[in-house]
Amino acid sequence: MALTTETALLVQPAATPSAAERRARSEQSDAGRNGGRRIGSHVFLVILVIYFITPLWWLLVAATKDNSGLFTGTGGSLWFDDNFAFFDNVAGLFERQGGIYWRWLGNSFLYAFAGGLGATVLSVMAGYGFAKFRFRGRNAFFSVLLGSVMVPVTALVIPTFMLLSQAGLINTIWAVILPSLLSPFGVYLMRIYTQDSVPDEMLDAARVDGAGELRIFFQVALPLLKPALVTVLLLSVVGTWNNFFLPLAVLSDPQLLPVTVGLNGWTALSNAGAGGEQVWNLITTGAFVSIIPLVLSFLFLQRYWQGGLSLGSVK
Amino acid sequence: MSSDTLHAATPGIRRRSAMSGGSRIDRKRQRWGWFFVAPFALIFIGFLIVPLVYAFWMSLQTSTLATGTQFTWFANYVKAFTDPIFLEGLGRVAAFAFIMIPIQMLVALAAALVLDTLTSWLSKFSRLMIFVPYAIPVVIGALMWGFLYSPRFGPATDIFGLFGLAAPDFLAQSAIFGSLINIVTWQWSGYYMIIIYSALRGVDPSIYEAARIDGANGWQTATRIKVPMISSSMVMVLIFALIGTLQFFTEPQVLRSVAQGAIPVSYTPNMYAYTLAFSYSQFNYASAIAFSLGIIVFIGSYIFLFFTRKQSGLK
Fold first, then answer.
1. Interfacial A residues in 276-295 facing B (CB < 8 Å)
2. What protein family is recorded (chain B) (predicted)?
3. Which residues of B touch A184 (CB under 8 A)?
């Protein structure tokens, strides 16, 4: 990430070695020492990894089983069944209720990206506005915003539901997307980051050169803000993707549900014991398929989120 | 590692307290400030301020079939705070907060401290694997654990059978509290671990060298230097966990259908408000419950921030 390096250069004299360089050096001198402690630490890590990974391993295995395999599999619940039914299960997902599962998955993507992208655009603009312009009401507004970070989102679901229903928006995609655009924490992060990484002198120089405010925002500020932007995008996409209470309350049309609410519905029906509704194999396969995109993107975008997630906490 | 570069940069960054050095505030710049903030302000007002005001307004009214809608002032709040079901739910989330948050933070802190001292491939791999549950939607996580706990699907019978023991029923009324704690710990510890770990990477290692010269061992370095150095990110994690725990909804709601009868519809205040609103159409009383919960979370986290403002760096 060339951008982070640039930011680092802006805030630190280039001559002093960065904490990372010093850390690398001190780690080299560490090597070979503390051998015993390392074994202990690694054992501890292996135990943690087993704990965190077992449910996912179970899900992977369960997605390859049919209904009877789930109950009385030949290899137990943590190993594959003799009968490999993964592709049958996926086919089952296409058949059940006219392939509504794929519709749900598509809805989840739509909500997460529309909500997440929108929230990011609003947060970047607002954070930049708060950080780089003085305007009347700025401090008052920002104090209210800071306080609102602590308002629990779920407390807003019921009044939002009632307002949306008065506006005739219940059971539309807007009932999920519009409330997801709200991200006070994103604005807070963007403001702090903008203050630190976009020097006023740079903006003033651009103004002297005759650039308009919009052009300055897009061509001078935005490139510097990329690391924080990725973080806010990630947090808001994951937030919307994860949201359960809001769609549960504002959507009842099965065609509009996100995959989380849909699968939860299948589970509730299967648990209720209705004979024709026992679709355990489809639930496990559906859950497995639905987590693949996010897990993969987290693994591949590692270098982007790892730095970003702590933006708010390191000051 | 690029994330290291970013974190190396962060300690050097200091918030600039003044705005663009003394330049005069003209009307045009004021307008641009509002231009950048306005889109967010609209969403903020529409989906936070208005719903909050509306919920408060609704909560002051009572509507019955016989008398219609009447303005009853704080009657709903008196009812809420003398309602044993609501108080029981509040007590339950308080109990969750007292037990669950320390467990999550201990797991996250221990993992982060161990990862910070290691640079092997195993530690990199572990870091990813411990974090992966964060990429799983809460609903899917709860569904998976529901299956794992289930005596019909889960591995518990096999695992306990190896030792000749009978598996406990994780979904029984007596065990459900612990089972829920386990789900939340599994889901969120990795996220908190990354925040703490990133903060640790930002600490200048020459401090550790100085400590080593003074004769501090690894444990002393960890508890007396590392932990105090990253206290601001610990406070951040605690606030996230506190807000999340007090609005506990998704996990118990999902597990409810699996654990037949062990989780009542009023298990947490949020579930109670949801049931009142969407099963009994008592929107006024539900608003009062949601608003009370919101106020409690807000005041709770505000007081907490006030007492830890030195550590958190928030002003």
1. 280, 283-284, 287, 290-291, 294-295
2. Belongs to the binding-protein-dependent transport system permease family.
3. 44, 48
Q: How far from each other are the two terminal CA atoms of chain B, in whole angstroms? A: 32
Q: Which residues, 6 or more positions from B81, have their beta carbon under 8 angstroms from its beta carbon?
A: B87, B292
Residues 6+ positions from B236 with CB-CB distance below 8 Å:
A312, A313, B195, B312
Contact status, residue A4 vs residue B5, Cβ threshold 8 Å: yes
AA letter at A229 = L
Over residues A197-217, the pLDDT tens digits come to 899 999 989 998 988 899 999
Chain A positions touching B4 (Cβ under 8 A) are 20, 23
Among partner residues B15, B20, B134, which is closest to A196 by beta-carbon distance? B15
Whole-model pTM: value is 0.85
Look up residue A58 and give its two tokens: 């179970």
Measured between CB atoms, does A272 come within 8 Å of chain B? yes
Rounded Cα distance, A148 and A254, in Å:
33
Interatomic CA distance for residues A192 and A313, integer angstroms? 11
> By percentage, how much of chain A surpasses pLDDT 90?
42
How far apart are alpha carbons B286 and A170 in whole angstroms?
Answer: 19
User: What Å distances lie between residue A20 and A16, A26, A177, B205, B275, CA to CA?
Assistant: 11, 10, 40, 9, 52
- Within A82-199, residue ranges assigned H as helices are 86-95, 100-132, 138-148, 154-166, 174-180, 184-197
Q: Say whether residue B290 is in contact with chain A using an 8 A CB cutoff.
A: yes
Q: Are A49 and B130 in contact (CB under 8 A)?
A: yes
Q: Which tens digit of pLDDT belongs to each residue from B167-197?
A: 788 888 888 999 999 999 999 999 999 889 9
Alpha-carbon distance of A184 to A197, in angstroms, equals 20
Cα–Cα distances in angstroms (integers) from residue A152 to residues B94, B244, B299, in the given order: 15, 8, 11
- Do the beta carbons of residue B86 and residue B289 sit within 8 Å? yes
Q: What domains are there in chain B, each with its CATH number?
A: 31-71 (no CATH), 76-311 (1.10.3720.10)
Return d(Cα B170, Cα B261) in angstroms, integer: 13
DSSP reduced 3-state for B22: coil
- Choose among A198, A192, A194: nearest CA to A6: A198
**What does residue B64 show for φ and ψ, rounded to 5 degrees?**
-130, 160
Backbone torsions φ then ψ of B72, nearest 5 degrees:
-120, 20
Smallest Cα distance from A98 to chain B, Å: 22
* A91: CB partners within 8 A, 6+ apart: none
Instruction: Point out the least confidently predicted range of A26-40, B50-64, B229-243.
Output: A26-40
Integer Cα distance of B75 and A289 in angstroms? 49
Number of H helices, E strands in chain A: 18, 0
Q: Which helix (H) or strand (E) holds A232?
A: helix A226-242
Residue B134 identity (one-letter amino acid): Y
* Contact list, A128 vs chain B (CB under 8 Å): 36
Q: What is the mean pLDDT of chain A?
A: 83
Q: pLDDT tens digits, residue range B254-276?
A: 998 888 788 999 999 999 999 99
Domains of chain A: 88-314 (1.10.3720.10)
Residues 5..24 of B with a Cβ closer than 8 Å to A: which? 5-16, 19-21, 23
Q: Return the top range by mean pLDDT from A271-275, A298-302, A307-311, B146-150.
A: B146-150
Q: How many CB atoms lie within 10 A of CB A171?
A: 15
**Region class of B168: left (phi > 0), else alpha (psi between -120 and 50), else beta:** beta
ipTM associated with this complex:
0.84
